[in-house]
Each structure stands twice: as structure tokens, then as C-alpha cells.
Fold this protein.
Amino acid sequence: MPKKSIIRTEKLCKSFSTGGVQHHVIKNLDTEIYEGDFTVIMGASGAGKSTLMYALSGMDKASLGKVHFADRDITKFTSDQLAIFRRKHCGFVFQQVYLMDSMSVMDNVLTAGLLTGQNKRELNKRAQSLLEQVGVGRKLWNKFPNQLSGGEAQRVGIVRAIINSPDMVFADEPTGALNSSSSDAVLNVLTEVNKQGQSILMVTHDMKSARRGNRIIYFKDGTIGGECDLGPYVSGDRARHDKLRNFLSDMGW
Amino acid sequence: MLGKLIKANFRKDFSQMISFLLIVILSSTMLGCGLTLLLGYNDDYERTLETNNAADIGMHVSGLKEYSGELTEIERYLASSPCVENYVAVDGLVAATSIDQSDSDEDVKDIVAAAETTAIFAPLDEDRDIERMNFIEKSDEEYDNPLYISGYILRQKYQNRFKVGDDIELTIGDHIYVFQLAGVYETIMAEQCFYVTESQYNDMVETLDPDWKNYYTLFLITTADGVSDNDATDEITEDLMRRGYNSDISTYTKSMMISADMIMVNVISAILCAFSLLIAVVVLIIVFFRISNSIEQNIVNIGALKALGCTSSQIRKAHIMEFVITAVAASLVGIGAMYLLLSPLGDLVGTMTMMRWDAHMIPGVAILMPLMFGVLTAVMSSLSTSKIKNLDPVIALRFGLQNHSFKKNYLPLATSGGPLVGLLALKSSLQSKKQNVMTFVIMGSVGLVTAFVIFFGYNICYKPINLYNILQSTSYDLMMALTDEEAYYEIANVDHVKECYWRATEEMTVAGQAVDVTIVEDLGSLTTINYTEGRAPLYSDEIIMSATAASQADVMVGDIVKVSYKGCDKELTVCGLAQGTDNLGKFALMNDDCARSLGFTAKTNTVCVTLDESNTDNAQKVTDEVESMYGDKLRAYINIPAALPQEPIIIGSTAICILIVVVTVLVILLSMTLLIKTVIIRKQQEFGIKKSLGFTSSQLRKELVLSMMPCVIIGSAVGSAIGTLKSNSFLTALLGSLGLAESRLPVYGWMGVASVIFTTLVSAIIIWLLSSKIKKISAYSLIKE
Ligand SMILES: Nc1ncnc2c1ncn2[C@@H]1O[C@H](COP(=O)(O)OP(=O)(O)OP(=O)(O)O)[C@@H](O)[C@H]1O
Ligand SMILES: [Mg+2]
């Protein structure tokens, strides 16, 4: 069965001008991101991974070309239309987590949910079960973000991103600021939600995180340098690990 | 190092510093004007009095020609009185003059339109030593018929429409005289004198019909050392009254003139100073909020600076200096702006008082103000930076400032109902205590001022008759001078006339004080007397005293006072007290039968009318009707509702009102700018996160406006309520020394409501406009930080 694509780009370009000098970060990119995938974008620092991700999500405007997201050309959207589009279709997980520190854990999650006008009772139930599921226990729900550990906060961040069951969760180095055991917990959560059908697009620097994906895209010189199909993640699968390492070394990582 | 830090701070806070600068400029300009007025005017006034060798007492004696023996006697009395040091007598003609309008079709009987004024024509005497001729302008040219008038008449009666050298055509009775304005002199005590040449004076004496003129002597008196002008006046009046002269004598004192002028000036300067200090308080609170926010925001940078080896005091100094430099610079600009405003301010004061005021910079004010603003800002900013002192660099770098932790989760979304944006706004409003206090203070002061301005504006600018009514012992809408003594019978039947009565005024001695006594047929039938106590006279031995005169003489309702008039003494019972600013509160009211028993026979040809509905049109209709009934027997009238807006006190008050409204809007604008910018910076990250979640800019802007509104509304409601409830007390305090015992201007609930609506609306609009900055914050900027 062929995979259904959620995001499709057409000659996508993104450039910045700094001091009058045009700097092309994405050049004529044609690619597709598929439903149900755990797609991982890798590449050298400064290659433009984040730029690509935020162009795909419509958080940032493309300079040229098109991005079709859920069958809509989001490059034509105004910023308000994009905001409204994001509510239902995108979830974001940031390296710095970015919970709203004036709100409790629960309210952080509910704010995102209420934005789409969901039924409050069902939303509450869903939020509670998701939080339980990622290991954020009831006693943390009324705490404020600065009372959480980094790993706990990031798991709350993930719940906030998936509360509306978006078409795609975008995660830019979600474990970048975490120690290894917290990282594992966060990655486990991502793997788990992916298994339940949530599509994920994640940028990462680190192989251990990348291994969680089933499709690895290597971004280089403003376009896709190569990609590798790893298949579904299985814990401790040596062959997958080697395949990824070979791919990356081919890419000059 | 310090220099670099300060520069860096300035660069970062540029736009907020501009707002801070502007608001300090505003405040210091107003404070400067207020202080200069307060200090400078008094000095200049003193100097004018000294230059002129001003008389302490002016005594008008009219009707002397018929009783010329009395003049010699009065002079002899003054020469021998121990109260009197010296005096000069200005002999002249008194006549009602108006500017000739024969070539215009306007109604020349309207006293205001005709710039009608009572003038004392006298030959110019430049050598006299009391109330010397102090010319502020004098032409050297030879004129056919030179005329010298006081600056007061030129400014207030003639609205500066003549310049030295211009022709002035004056109508006196059936004559028109053409003068050339040859000089303008400054005087406090003899403003009605119109000085002419000896030959012109003699010509007027001969040509003017006796109907239109009266012989007159103005005695300008200086009192002996240690005798106050008030005591001397009371004693002289009482002595002269006892002698039973037939001449009409009335007196006024220097201190009365001074206090009338000073009150106007003090009211203006008090309003300016109070208002500027209010702004200063608001701005200092904002400084405090601004700095503590900036510290919270930059805690990591501050930690880093400390880690690099900056001392706490260097970092603090950088913050403090940033604000102190701006405050001092702003107050210097404020002094400059004040310098430019001094001349219009002088003009404004000149149209309200006796003296033209050439306002000039007072060095003390120019030095004191930057110092004051500098010190206050330094104190406020060092208070708000004290946190830095105890900041551990490691803790700062790792955790930021811990006071940012939120203790209580207000309105958990799981259980609270309502629209999301509203809920979030309310949550954030409940959490921002410091911001709430600030908003409350700002809006409270703004609401207070606005409510007072609405009250003031309504009663003084929009319906000045209200102010007039409380300032007048007996008020009326229309006063008419007729040659028919019976006219008041018929005028009472004209449409729109509610009350109609004749009225006469005479100076008498009551309880040892020289007061102006108003005589009407029956005070009991008038509804327009401003009683503070008691009632109208029922018997011929009763009198109403002014509250001011009564308290000075320590007299209460029911007491018996001695009243003397031209040799006749009577004991009268005080049946009531009234308030009013006539003769600076020194007045009394009595019925005709009482006046007759004192030997005074009132003329009944001055008719006062109260209208069923007081407005210019009705007053005009009545006048027209009376004119059609009496023709030329109606000699002159004054339409109070039409004339009031041109009264100096009303013009001055209107100017103040407009100024305060403009300044209020500016204060809201600037303080809200500072506040909103600070709030937006503080919440920048949160806005970014919310945008990434899918909040639109307008949702976030709505949330911001809504989150500030509870405090805006509560603050403005509290301020407006206090302002509305206390408005009369405030006015009483301002006008108390004018003779106003208790201001009783109408206060309506809508004034408070209007104030709340106005301030809230203006704030909401300003916050909404300022919040457009949120549009520029993108979710994407989160990643770029
Ligand atoms: N707003 C911007 N203005 C100018 N240049 C930008 C902007 N955003 C990104 N760039 C440039 O685009 C290039 C790609 O940046 P991007 O953040 O996408 O890289 P990255 O692959 O995510 O790097 P890293 O792995 O370090 O996060 C960089 O050279 C960066 O300097
Ligand atoms: Mg990146």
C-alpha cells in the first residue's frame, strides 16, 4: 500500500538576505512527508534543518515555491490563516520546551486543546490520560513549569503538541537540552505516539535520537542530500543501527 | 565599563526611554510654570505695589459738588486721622462710557458688547506720590486729545483692541469723544481712572449733561505704620458714617485687591503644581516597575556580567544612571518649554488679574527642578535595583530570579467556564500583581482628575451660570438699568421671567466693618440667595450678613449688630448668613424697610430678572420685550448667560480645563505606552508560544486589552468616584478665600460614569493600538532567540 503524503513541496526556496547578501538556505526542494511516518531530518549545523522544518509547517514563509499541507497550499495563507491552520494540523515541540511559565502544567495542555473548540469534558479526559501515559503524574498537573525537571517539562510539551491529534508533530531537537536518561524517556514517548499513528517530523543532531525514525532525510546544500529507509524502530536492533551509521558516513556526517 | 553599560541600556530601552522622556518633560514643564507663577507673580506684584507706592485704601466719594463743604471736612478728617499717613485726592468726573458703535448695528445697550465701563475722568497728574503713574507704555507724540488708561481696562474691558496711538471713540451720554490712546499705566488701586488733559477735562465738565456725569473724588490713602488697611478702612468708614455726610462713600483696600488677584493666580498654580506632581508620581511608579521588570528579563545577562567581574554597584549604577540622565535631560527640556510658555501664561494671568505680568524665568526653579527629578528618579531606581545586590551569579545564570515563580493557579482551565481568550485574560490579570497596582494607581489618578474636570467643565465652562450662582450673594440672569422707577412691576409679567426685583447697593458699616449692602424690597421672596444658615428678614430690624463678614466679626445668627449709615446707627438682628464673592465676601443684604429706617432711600430703577430657564436666548427675548415696552428708558442691560463666557474667571477656567483634558490624555497615552511596552517585552516569549499554538494576533491583543481592563476599570472607577464626591470640597478649598463658604455646585452621577467611560475607553483604545506590536512577534522568533 503506497503511503499517503501529508506535506508535499514544489520548488520550495527559502533565502535570507543579510546585509544585502542573499543567502539561499533551501533551494528548489521537491519532497514529500508521509502520514504515519516518524521522519527524521539530519544534517550539519547551519545546513538549514530548522529552516526547512519551519517552512514545511508554515511557521515561516517560503521565499518561492509551494508547500501543500493536508491538500492545501499553505504558502498562500495569511499569518492569521496560518495560525488557525496550526491549531488543528500542527503540533510543535521545541528544544527549550517553551511551556507558558505563568500557567500550570494542565492549563498549558488545555489552552492548546481549547483553542480548537473541543468539548471541555472530553478534552480534560484526553489530557489526563495523555499526561498519565507520558509519565507525568497527577501530582504534577497543578505545578508550574519552573517546578518541573527538564525531562518532565518536555514530556508535557509533547502532550501539548499532540492534544489536538495534529496531522504532524514538528520537533526541533526535542532532546537537545536533556541528559541521556531524560532523553530516552522523551524519545520513548515520541516512539509510542508514533506507533499509535501520530506522524512526526523531527530534527536531530544525534544518532541515538535519529534511530527512532523510520525515514531519515539528510539535508545538505539546500536540498536533500540523501535519504534512508530504516523501517519501524525496534529497540536494540543492531542492523538498523549499522545501516544508519553507514548512511550518515556516506553523507559525510 | 560603566559608560558602556549605560550606553547598552539606552540602546536596548530606546523607545521606552522616549516615552519616559516625554512624560517627564510634560510634568516638569507644568511644574515649572506652576512654580514660576506661584513665586514670580507674587514678587512682581510686590514690586509693582512698591514702584507705584500703592495706596492702601481707595475711597470713592461721589456727589461732592452739591455738598462741597463735606469735601473740606473729609480732607480735614483724613489729615488728622491717626490711621492715615498720607493721601492724595484725585478730583474727577465719573461717567458710564462705552465704545462708540454708531456705525455698527449691534445693540449698544448690551453692556458687554459696548465694552461699557465706569470711568473716572481726571486731569493727568504725573507728579503725585501715592499710586504714582507707572507707565508700561507711553507715547512721546503730540496728540490732539490724549487719553491714558490702565492696563487692566485695556486688557479686560477692551480686550486689547487698542494700541498706543489708536483713536478711541467713547460714548458718554449723548456725546461722542474722540481720544488718542497716549499711554497705558499699571495700577492696582486706581484702575478706573481715565486721565485726560486739563483742557479736555474742563471741556467735559462744561459740555456733559448733568444726567450723565457725577462729580467724584478718589482719595488714595496710605495708612500709618502698624495700621492694617482693613482696620483703617473700618475705622474711617465708621467715623465718616457717624458724621452723617450726604455724599456716597465707598472704600476698598489693597489687601482685598491683592487677595482677589492672588486667588486667581494661586488657583492656577495650585492646579498646575498638583497635576504635575501627580504625573511625577505616576512616572516614578512606572520607573520602578520598568526597572524591576528589566532586571527579571535580563537576569541571565546580569548574572553573566557578574560572572565577568562586574560589581553589583556598577550594574545598578548603569540602570540608575540611564533613568537619571533621561530625567535630568527631560527636565532641562521642560525648563526650555516652560520658558516658551511663560509669555502666553503671563497673558492669561493678565486677562484675569489687575496686573500685567511679564513672566520671567526664576533661577531657583531652573536649578531645583532638574535636581528634584534627578534625585527622585535616583531614589526610585536604586530602590528597584536593590535586588541586584544580593544576586548570586550562579543562581542567576541557572535559574533566573526566583520571585518569578507563580504560587497559585487562578481559574484552572479544567474547571472554569467561558470563552478561552477571556479566561486567559482574567488569569493573567489575577497573576500580575505589580502591574495591577501600577495600572490602578495610574487609572485612579487619571479618573480622579477626569471626574473633577468633568464637574468643573460642566459647571464652569458649559453652564457657568452655576458657578456664578454660588459666587453671587443674589444671582440673576439679566440686569437692566432703566430711567423708569416703576418698570419692575411690568417686567415681572414678561414671558420667561420667573422673578423680577429692583436692587440697590450701598456701603454701610456693619459690626464695625465696611461692607456692601444690597437692598431689595423683600429678600424673602427671592429664591436665589445663597444662604449658608438662617432665613430672610421678616422684620425691619433684621439683616443678612455674609458668612465671611460674620466670621470676621465673630457674629452668629441671632446676634445683634450695630449698623451705621450716614450718621444713623441702628441695632439689627442677624437673621441669616449668605455666601458669595461680592466684595470678596464682605457684604450684607437687607430689605427696603430696614434701609429706609437707616435713612437710605433706594432707587428702584435697577431691575434684576431671574428666568424660568436660564439661557442667552431667553435673556435676549426678555430684553427685546422690555425694550419694546420702554424704548430708550432702557438705558443698559447685561445678559449674564451671554456675558459669562467672556468673564476672565470663566475664560481662565476654560483654558485650564482644556489644558487638563489634553494633559490627561497625554498622561494616559505616555504612561500606558511605558506600561504596555514593558508588559509586551515581559510576555514576548509567551506571545510567541501562543502563536505557535495557533493563537492569532488579534486574539492575543484582545487578551492583553482584556487582562488590563479589570484594573483599568476599577482604578478609574475608584478615582472617578472620589473625584466626583469630593469635587465640591476641592472647589471650596480652591475658592475659599474668595468668600465662598461652601461650594454647592450640582454634582451628578453621570459625571462619575462619564469619567469612567472616557478614561476606560481612551485607555482601551490606547492599549489596543499599542498592542499592535504583538503582530510583529512571530512564533518563529522563538526558535531564533
Ligand atoms: N532569520 C534569519 N536571517 C538570516 N539568516 C538566517 C535566519 N535564519 C537562519 N538563517 C541562516 O540560515 C542557515 C540555516 O539555519 P538553520 O537554523 O536552519 O540551521 P540548522 O540546520 O537548524 O542548524 P543547527 O543544527 O545549528 O540548529 C544558517 O546559516 C543561518 O545563519
Ligand atoms: Mg536548528
